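This section describes the prediction task in plain terms. A model, or a person checking by hand, is given the sequence of a single protein chain and must write out its three-dimensional structure as a string of tokens. No templates, partner chains or ligands are provided. The sample shown here is typical of the held-out split.
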Amino acid sequence: MTNRTSDARRHCLQERVRWSDVDASGIILWSAYTRLVEIAETELFRAAGFPYGTLWDRLDIWLPRVQFHLDYRNPARLDDLLEIGIGVSRIGRSSIRFEFTVSKAAAEVVAEGYLVIVAIGRADGRSVAVPKALAEALAPYRSDL
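The expected answer:
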């Protein structure tokens, strides 16, 4: 995985399609996209100053994923170098929606979609407001501002 600088309010990184990501035909499995998007989400939080290793304790919340939508556009194959771009399209009271694009060499889109996470309290699992510090840290990656 290679992190790149942010591009147009998105965090971008590169990752290769691995052997465990493909089926017998050598085309990427749908489940591999969850791995790629999770890596991108994790690295976006790190770039915003909230690495997952400290996020939970610092903010006393969990951020479970409640929606994952993926549209396939073109096949990705074993050993293709993919670029994953992710940005924040909306921050609600308790939710954050990310938009992502997976491309070959940043030119041919192979998949795109969105992911929604919700802030919940660690003590009781109830919905809480997205912490102001987190919303502010994600501001450079928001497309809705």
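For orientation: The chain has a mean pLDDT of 93.
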